[in-house]
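Sequence in, structure out. Go.
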Amino acid sequence: MDITENRRKIGGAMKLLEVKNLKTYYYVGGEEIPAVDGVDLSINQGEVFALIGESGSGKSVTSLSIMGLIDPPGKILEGQIAFHRNGVMDNLLAKKEREWQAIRGNEISMIYQDPLTSLHPLIKVGDQVAEVLEIHKKMGKKQAKREAVEMIRRVGIPDAEKRSGEFPEKFSGGMRQRIMIAMAMISNPRLLIADEPTTALDVTIQAEILDLIKKMGKEKNTGILLITHDLGVVAEMADRVSVMYCGKIMEEAPVKELFRSPKNPYTKGLIKCIPKIDEKKRELLEIIEGCVPYPTDFPTGCRFSTRCPNVMERCKTELPDLIEAVPGHKVRCHLY
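Output:
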């Protein structure tokens, strides 16, 4: 597919990543766990695309699959991960590990949940940021160090030259996450994956980190895949959003459309769980009844059928397709 066709198909925006029918399963104790089970999604250049859902829904496994970081007992069984490179959509799943290493951390970067475990405790932060340029851009140590100090300054760390010579333990959680952003963005990646990037931070620092990610993404026209369970973060950050449950995409829409007119009962349940500060009456928050089924015991039909308030007999035996209910708004539900 050439670039012109790509742009025409998505209304002028260049498609950066396209995932089709991705299936990533784990095999533990003789059991098959379908962590990601036929996922489709696409991200445009410069777009913030959010993937939301409860813990265990398959969000992080999706991101690790895109990065080529699935190790045994996990395995990508089938699907396609097409990334726009050199004027064509290139299937990353056909790459050998050496080719993956040239892409990972360079064209596609990732920010993980916990910066403390992601940073090497015995290497100065400036050296860790500079190493990205030394490996991927073949830059000399002195120039890489200068570029690293400048990037550390750009992500909001004062006295960057001095602090670049310190170890991660000298930094707060928010500052460590800024270092992770510096490492992820210094190679000017075209796709940034942010997997729950503010989970370990307090609320005020969370807002600062999210603003920084969005700002730096806009500066470089970087596509961003934001993995989160926080609908407030989605409303603030994302352009489009997919809702994931038990390894399946349940709904996908532009973010404003999703909040204005959610269609899948699971999405509606998630939105009803959000506390509203403008409510005059003190009422108990609504909850989604029941528990997420264990991956080896998923329902035969719709994955949400054991918890859905609108369940029908058909839902218990037939898995609905993901269809376009209205233009640009997809839903997996027999109600549609």
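Check: The longest helix spans residues 203-220. The CA atoms of residues 108 and 163 lie 27 Å apart.
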